[in-house]
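worker-03 picked up job from queue 'complexes'. Input manifest follows; two sequence lines, order preserved.
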Amino acid sequence: MTGPTDSPLYPYKESPSQTAGPYVHIGLTPNFCGIEGVYDSDLGTTMVSDKTQGERITLEGRVFDGGGNLLKDALVEIWQADSDGIYHAKASPDFSGWGRCPADAETGVFRFDTIKPGRVPFPDGKLQAPHINLWIVARGINLGLNTRIYFADEADANAADPVLSRIEHRDRVTTLIAKGGAGRFSHDIHLQGPQETIFFDI
Amino acid sequence: MTSNQKQIANFFPRDRSWHPKALTPDYKTSVLRSPTRPLIAFGNSLSETTGPAFGHDMLGPLDNDLVLNFAQSGMSAIGERIIVEGRVLDERGQPVPGVLIEFWQANAGGRYRHKKDGYLAPLDPNFGGCGRTISGEDGSYAFRTIRPGPYPWPNGPNDWRPAHIHFSVFGHGFAQRLITQMYFEGDPLIARCPIVRTINDPKAIDQLTARLDMSASAPMDALAYRFDIILRGSRSTLFENRLEGN
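worker-03 finished. Artifact:
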């Protein structure tokens, strides 16, 4: 129910989150889990075409729990700007800034074939470094986790990035930066432990 | 190259005391999957206030009918036929039109069509368990399905999930992205469920509990349950040096 709450200024509260659970694939990537014939294809599997402008990249990652175990049932979505730093709510045939990928059931790897995003302004007008926004859900995660991926070959832009700049514990900044270059990047996410990834309250 | 996109207003901060905490030990899987360090907050940028949009043209005619969308010709899923309907609103009570809503569920016996589900209850050959729709101009949405069954799950020695339907909802900004579950009014398993109980406030649990809605039912066909979904609202004010984009 959505009745008024104790707070009369804003009568509605955001629906509380619940875990995506172990069977998230049925809803979000049914073809991936063998439910075929309901949708032609799973959403978010193709982000680029032959005509997409910008530097092609592949981004591979894994998610680890606090015991160092791979999550093989996580699902990751990404949202990013095009190579000019423009977000396209409505996907064009040549570029969708949104991707969705379940972790591989054996290797735990998620992979996106996309482009390096351009720089997007922060509200103060300063430019953010190229980055991809991530949202991670899985069994055991009660509320989807928000983080970002920056790129190791953008050191100057990263050094001036307004979000990275506000991270007090500088040794943690590396948890947001994908390793690699020349179009191939890898990025592991750690939910806990000494390498715990930075997650954001956006 | 850089963007000259204009930013829409910021979203209301998420009330993280209303949502479940990350670490909820009675739901055991959360113990090793819950971040321990404080989240880092910053004001919304275009990266948070924009998000993907999906057109009605992507929807197939049976996408919002789980009774039929996996069934063989002339067949239908087994179970109590129900309609689930409601509206997508924001925290200011405004309709949120044009957003993709995806849902998935167990069959009437409490069994998922997923290789990781080994529950004794049988699969229904005519039930897949997934559907989707896009909210209308007034934020409304509806789909037809069968009432899912409760089922046991390995957590405590005898934990059962109440009957529930999973929902994934997009907003207009990526920061509104939400996954939740819908429960059914009157189900005695709701109060016993460790996943439900990751939520502290009974009013928040009540918000996830759909109500029987006889006025929306289809006589001689299906009962209806009403479930409104609330997404984060956005600040909209003339005192932020911009008059556009609100």
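worker-03 released lock.
The helical segments of chain B are 46-49, 202-207.
The first strand of chain B starts at residue 40 and ends at 41.
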